[in-house]
Design brief:
The complex is a heterodimer of chains A (about 350) and B (about 375). Chain A has helices at about 5-20, 35-60, 70-100, 105-125, 125-150, 170-180, 185-190, 200-225, 235-240, 250-280, 285-310, 310-320, 325-354. With about 350 residues, chain A is mainly alpha-helical. In chain B, helix 8 crosses helix 9 (about 295-325) and helix 10 (about 335-340) packs across helix 11. Classes of the chains: A mainly alpha (about 350), B alpha/beta (about 375).
Chain lengths: ~350, ~375
């Protein structure tokens, strides 16, 4: 299979991460206030700290974090987490599109069409999905620039105030919830072996890019929408609808296109990561492909169920937002893999020296 | 060959499958230009003004000598049901994507504004940057006046509001601004008030629409009427107006000065349980219709001082009519405090309205007339 560049993977992972910012559920904590900036920065600091040991142990060869040392159990845990992330992404996308411009479309059509495209992505492989993802990322950047220009007249810096936190009681929970949205780390752990070289550099692109864009979006939310942000289900959609530039009066249609494409890329990456986890641990290529397709079907079915049982989805989302699934699948297992590999290497070196 | 097959397949899909989807042709939609909302006998009455492509009798689809719009009304327990009723009457589905103005009648403004305008924020087609204005009486009367000096009638009202803002008379209010502010219990929003009068030369019935003042809203409802002068005073503090006109008497001679490049700095302090605001305003001025012949430059100094005093009085009166009289924050004072002293804001936010009633304002204005016109 063709390999991909670390820059490409970094950009696509950043796009996938930013999708979580756009298609939030109404219950998600994107409220007006300076605390949001603090929450984002703290969650990335936490992420950086958590990545240090993995980085030190893997330095030149990040692919060891996805090797088969943790065995089938590790792979199964990662796959379960990825299926949960896929369900969450598909449900959020369905909720977002049916709440905005596809208000009359039945949920199954939205889920089915997205799943078919993701299935196609799975068959085309990582290089094709990543290349498409880079194009979508460019489209997203265009949208972001157009929105910034379009709402520049509405920006009111007075809406900002000097406080790091205004809801101390929720700060910890908010940081953990924000941190738990970084499911891209599991995708990275499983796909980094498909990067030509210097796979760890993908995170040097992904994390600063995602952090910068999130802070910029939060700045726009706070200075344009102000306290109205507390009542907005999809703040970026609202900004897009407010945008008014001479060529493009309303950008909300483009906004939906961009997020649908981002979700397709994200779900395709998840499917490819599941395929990768299966081939590395316990299945041949054919079996792994069937497993990835099964995961897509499960994800679509669960999203269909959640589309009419919103409360159940909120309970499901609470499990993801607790941070425990991500810590297990995104840190503990890769760290175990890396440590085992590190110790194995040392042992081999000692053996060779003696 | 593979690509050719793919292209043929795509073309076939595009030409054949699109007919399977439910769709609405453009001429089956009523493109809504303005919505008027009234309230009477416990129900809402909406007047929808929509673009009429061919019904005006012109030889071309858009006849520039006609108003090109049609009004239709509907009633219901909520604005949405009233809009549905109007749509049923009209026989077309409404498209709100390019709606320019929402006019609200006096009685409608006495209802919960968040509920009344929820249709404008929750429906995906709606645009929260639509301008909102108040009608002195009924909104339907305002929309009944159809102007012919634009491609569509509502352009006239939009230009009236935008032009008034550029002269510092009013601050235009959009749906998002109105809803954002009215969610704060002590916030004040001033809507420009439109009234029907005689003397219109661009309407068939000789009617005209004028800007006659403002309506102060707070706590989601109408509070009081205010004058154009008070609106202008608040506008000087809220958003930087492009300019405003001041006329002063000097030696029995009227001198008008256009004030521009206006910058207001508001500093606050809190002591003895009282909020104090120091407003420091700086602006440039230019003579509009002065009689500078035979006058030296000391005349300008005198006029500058008189203009400054006139502006001070205008702002002081506007603040006493809105902020101190009603305890509502009509000029964004909350943001001035919270952006610079968030701790103080936290301590006073619960009873901010009471603090505003007791607040003291000191205003100093410095005007520098630097343009003298082309006569001398």
């Amino acid at each position: 299979m063709d390999k991909i560049g670390w820059g490409q993977l970094g950009i696509v992972l950043a796009l996938s991460r930013i999708f979580a910012e756009a298609a939030n559920f109404p219950s998600d904590d994107i409220n007006y206030g300076m605390q949001r900036f603090t929450v984002i920065v703290l969650s990335y600091i936490l992420l950086g700290i958590a990545l240090i040991p993995v980085y030190i142990l893997t330095k030149n060869d990040a692919s060891v974090i996805s090797c088969s040392i943790s065995g089938k159990a590790g792979a199964v845990i990662m796959i379960i987490y990825l299926v949960m992330a896929s369900v969450s992404t598909t449900t959020r996308l369905q909720f977002y599109t049916s709440s905005t411009i596809f208000d009359a479309a039945p949920p199954w059509i939205l889920i089915l069409f997205v799943s078919i495209v993701c299935l196609y992505g799975l068959f085309k492989g990582i290089p094709a999905v990543v290349r498409t993802g880079v194009i979508v990322a460019a489209l997203f950047l265009f949208l972001l620039m157009a929105v910034i220009i379009g709402v520049s007249d509405h920006i009111q810096p007075d809406f900002l105030y000097a406080a790091f936190t205004d809801r101390p009681s929720t700060l910890f929970y908010d940081v953990i919830a924000e941190f738990s949205k970084n499911g891209e780390l599991v995708i990275f752990a499983l796909l980094c072996s498909d990067v030509r070289k210097n796979a760890f550099r993908s995170l040097y692109v992904c994390l600063p890019a995602a952090l910068g864009v999130q802070l910029l979006m939060t700045f726009l939310y706070n200075t344009v929408l102000g306290e109205y942000l507390n009542n907005t289900s999809f703040p970026f959609y609202m900004l897009s609808a407010l945008s008014d530039i001479s060529l493009l009066q309303r950008l909300d249609g483009i906004d939906v296109v961009v997020w649908v494409m981002s979700a397709v890329i994200k779900i395709s990456l998840i499917s490819l990561a599941i395929y990768s986890a299966c081939t590395k641990s316990f299945l041949n290529k054919k079996g792994a492909r069937i497993a990835a397709i099964a995961a897509l079907i499960v994800s679509g079915g669960a999203s269909l169920y959640f589309s009419v049982n919103t409360n159940d989805f909120l309970n499901f989302a609470t499990i993801l937002e607790s941070g425990i699934p991500l810590i297990t699948a995104g840190f503990i297992i890769p760290l175990c893999n890396a440590m085992f590999r590190f110790l194995q290497k040392k042992k081999e070196e000692r053996y060779e020296n003696s | 060959m593979k690509i050719l097959k793919l292209v043929i397949f795509c073309l076939f899909s595009v030409t054949s499958l699109s007919g399977c989807l439910p769709h609405t042709e453009l001429d089956e939609q009523a493109i809504v230009e303005a919505v008027g909302i009234d309230y009477a006998d416990g129900e809402y009455e909406v007047t929808v003004q929509y673009f009429n492509m061919e019904g005006t009798g012109g030889s071309s689809p858009i006849d520039s000598t006609k108003a090109n719009v049609v009004n239709i009304s509907g009633k219901g327990e909520s604005v949405s049901t009233a809009l549905n009723s109007a749509s049923v009457k009209c026989g077309k589905s409404f498209m709100y994507g390019i709606t320019s103005v929402i006019v609200m009648g006096r009685e409608a403004l006495k209802q919960d504004i968040l509920k009344t305008l929820s249709f404008a924020e929750s429906y995906y087609q709606s645009n929260t940057s639509v301008l909102v204005a108040a009608a002195d009486g009924k909104a339907s009367d305002i929309l009944a006046v159809k102007f012919k000096d634009g491609i569509i009638s509502i352009e006239h009202l939009k230009m009236l509001l935008n032009n008034s803002q550029s002269y510092g008379l009013i601050g235009n209010v959009t749906v998002i601004e109105l809803l954002r502010e009215q969610r704060r219990s002590y916030a004040g929003t001033i809507l420009p008030v439109l009234s029907v009068s005689d003397g219109g030369e661009t309407t068939d019935d000789g009617k005209n629409v004028l800007l006659t003042g403002g309506m102060l809203l707070s706590g989601k409802r109408y509070i009081s009427d205010i004058s154009l002068s008070d609106m202008s005073g608040i506008q000087l503090l809220r958003k930087n107006p492009q300019n405003t006109l001041v006329s002063v008497d000097s030696d029995n001679e009227k001198v008008s000065v256009t004030i521009y490049n206006i910058k207001a700095e508001i500093k606050h302090s809190f002591s003895e349980g009282k909020l104090r605001f120091e407003i420091d305003m700086r602006a440039d001025g230019k003579y509009t219709d002065s009689q500078l012949v035979d006058k030296d430059l000391t005349f300008s100094s005198k006029i500058e001082a008189m203009c400054a005093e006139a502006l001070n009085n205008r702002i002081q009166k506007a603040l006493s009519t809105t902020v101190t009289a009603s305890g509502c924050d009509s000029c964004g004072l909350k943001y001035r405090i919270s952006s610079s002293d968030y701790r103080l804001w936290r301590s006073i936010s619960e009873n901010f309205g009471d603090f505003l009633r007791e607040a003291e304002f000191s205003i100093s204005t410095d005007i520098d007339i630097d343009r003298f016109g082309i006569i001398h």
